[in-house]
Amino acid sequence: MALSLTDKLVGFIVRPVETFRAVRDEELAPPVIYYLVLLIINAILSAIVAYLGFGAATNNTPGIGAFIAGLIAAFILGIISLILISIFLHLGARIMGGRGDFADSFKSTIYSLTPQMLLGWIPIIGFIFTIWSLVLLVLGVRELHELDTMKAIIAVVIAVVIILVIAIILGIIFGLAILSILGLSGMPGVVPTG
User: Are 156 and 89 in contact (CB under 8 A)?
Assistant: First the structure.
């Protein structure tokens, strides 16, 4: 029996194991539609927070520009994060012997993001829902890839470590590019740019 949107929203927050089991054989269209609904909700709420001057992308300057920047940032980051997390989660699950396919990693990622997408935009306490999303990610990998809990945790840790390493490398490259653009080649340890 297919779960309704409301059943999923509530289920992934209060009954995640049973809900992951209920969506195990689901095709990809329902989770993609579910994610788009979550993304729209999250983008609007994030944009409102940005409009009020609380968003990181707005440099704490409230206004319509902040609203639009927040809306665009939420959509772009939402799609990019879904793809990257799914890819690296699948890699981690396969390394740990997971039996699921990429669709199972994709569904685990989409459904685990429910608390973060619905409530993670709340200033100061939003991180709590990000932590709950990580717990759901472990449960999703465990249920959809048929792993034990420890292997599912390791699969998620592998994905998180890969993402963090890539983010650090990109941060260093971006930082060096900014230093080069600003012409700070006279600083110790910075190579002159000819």
Answer: yes
Between CA 128 and CA 99 the distance in angstroms is: 30
**Per-residue pLDDT tens digits for 128-170:** 999 999 999 999 999 999 999 999 999 999 999 999 999 999 9
Cα→Cα distances 74→66, 69, 78, 120, 138, Å: 12, 8, 6, 12, 24
Give dist(CA 86, CA 40) in Å, integer. 20
For 124: left if phi > 0, alpha if psi spans -120 to 50, otherwise beta; the answer is left
Closest CA to 46 of 66, 27, 32, 30: 66
Q: Under a CB-based contact definition with an 8 Å cutoff, are residues 39 and 83 in contact?
A: no
Residue labelled with tokens 């927040």: 70
Residue 67: both structure tokens together = 């609203």
